[in-house]
Amino acid sequence: MEILQPFRCPWCLKDPDYQHYHDTEWGVPLRESKKLFSLLILEGAQAGLSWLTILKRRQGYLAAMNDLDPDAIARYTEQDISRLLLNTGIIRNRRKIESAVINARAFLAMQDKGEDFSEWLWSWVEGRPIVNHWKNLSEIPPVTPLSETISLELKQRGFTFVGPTIIYAYMQSAGLVNDHLVDCYRHGELISGA
């Protein structure tokens, strides 16, 4: 007897790591500020690349950059940046590495002003994921008016590599938006809280 596999969003089917990410992480509401920060750094590193490229290097980032802890990264010096530029476990792009340092400092500046990053971010969706009902990948927009607004607000707070396309991908990853296709088994599971 043939065992039927559940329908998944087609973008994840080409690689087992991608499929595991889709099944266990993508679109799951992430509410812990430091985890949201580390995801933001990885989304920024993705610019111009595929998410699978970053996913395959995620452990390299964690090992090379103090588990993507903003307190540690905010203290990085030019010597740290030079060290990271030699690390083949991450994307060796100076602007992206410098952006991680800049963003760590901006994240901590928000904290110093009493702004919890998670509360701030989730306030844009009133604390609940936006649930979309896409039938095809071609329907999913790369940018939305909300991602443009959040991008602008982050830039005003000093963040970099936070353009509206990056921010929309970030919103999808962090679960602020449920963009699983309606036929994907994860769409309904995330709505029901599974």
Describe this protein with a few key phrases.
two-stranded parallel sheet, globular, single chain, 194 residues, mainly alpha, Endonuclease III, domain 1, 2 strands
Head-to-tail CA distance between termini = 28 Å
How many discrete structural domains? 1
Number of E strands: 2
Mean pLDDT: 95
- Which superfamily, in CATH terms, is the homologous superfamily? Hypothetical protein, domain 2
Order of helices and strands: HHHHHHHEHHEH
**Helix share bin:** 40-55%
Largest sheet: 2 strands, parallel
Could you name the ranges where pLDDT drops below 50 across 5 or more consecutive residues? none
**3D shape:** globular
Number of helices: 10
**CATH architecture descriptor text:** Orthogonal Bundle
SS content category: mainly alpha
Strand proportion: under 5%
- CATH class descriptor: Mainly Alpha
- By CATH, the topology is Endonuclease III, domain 1
Strand arrangement within the widest β-sheet reads: 1-2
Radius of gyration: 17 Å
Task: Describe what this molecule looks like in 3D.
- This protein has 194 residues and is an all-alpha fold.
- It has ten helices and two strands; from the N terminus they run αααααααβααβα.
- The chain has helices at 16-24, 33-46, 51-64, 70-73, 78-85, 94-112, 117-123, 145-156, 164-173, 185-192; strands at 130-131, 177-178.
- The chain has a two-stranded parallel ribbon.
- Helix 2 (33-46) crosses helix 9 (164-173) and helix 8 packs across helix 9 (164-173).
